[in-house]
Write a structure and sequence with these properties.
With 121 residues, the protein is mainly α. Helix content is 80%, strand content 0%.
Length: 121
């Protein structure tokens, strides 16, 4: 179970660390080609907050189990990332971005699996 958690959490943490860092660091013009919603449907300050939440979620998936301190935070991080993806799914669905919506569903499922696997700690 722990190996499955680390594989799932590692993939999610890598994805969210990259995505969060991009949202925090890049300008609206740099984000537009890959995230058309950034700055148009969602104001840039909110995009920055989403990036910080993703970075914190990535850390929450990895650090508590790795340090064996407050491992319940890993469950909270996974659930929080799942909720974030449900909200992201709504944005993409309204914009007619069906392909991105499918990615959100996959990320929700992976986050749910990570939350379940984190109970092994």
């Amino acid at each position: 179970m722990e190996t499955a958690y680390w594989i799932t959490a590692g993939l999610l943490a890598t994805f969210y660390a990259y995505g969060g860092a991009v949202k925090v660091v890049r300008s609206q013009e740099q984000l537009q080609p890959m995230m058309a919603w950034a700055g148009t449907d969602v104001p840039m300050p909110v995009v920055r907050v989403i990036g910080v939440v993703e970075l914190l979620g990535a850390l929450g998936l990895v650090l508590p189990p790795a340090l064996d301190i407050a491992v319940g935070l890993a469950i909270a991080a996974a659930v929080g990332l799942a909720v974030l993806q449900v909200l992201a799914w709504r944005v993409h669905w309204r914009r007619g971005e069906r392909r991105d919506s499918i990615m959100n569903v996959v990320l929700v499922v992976l986050a749910a699996v990570a939350a379940w696997l984190a109970t092994a700690f």
